[in-house]
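Input record (one chain):
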Amino acid sequence: MTTIEEFIEIHGIKMKECNKIHQSPYMPDFKGDHWEIVLHMPGKGINEFVTYFSKGIGHKGKRPTVSEVLDCIASDASGYENSNSFEDWANDYGYDTDSRRAETIYHNVKAASLNMKNFLGKEAYETLLWEPERM
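The corresponding structure, as predicted from the sequence alone:
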């Protein structure tokens, strides 16, 4: 079993940009620190992945690491991949299946998961989701 850090090294993933922003478009009510992140992986057709990342105020503005970003995305993506539908996903995470907010979150997780799969390639994506030890 590998670690997230080993996965990052094997695939040469770097943080190209980490820009602090006022608010994440996906978490408008979350009080914390927010960043727009650009990850870069050399030698691929789609070699950049753009995402938003947030941390609670207890982190006092400390920039996220590539490990933290990938671990968070892998956690969300594995939940999406394990579900058969929105209703299945919502039940797993304790959301009301009639909630528009929950459905929006589900679609954001789905989009981020598919974008990560396109960025890494199917094999590396599967490895990221199921093999490394979680942080």
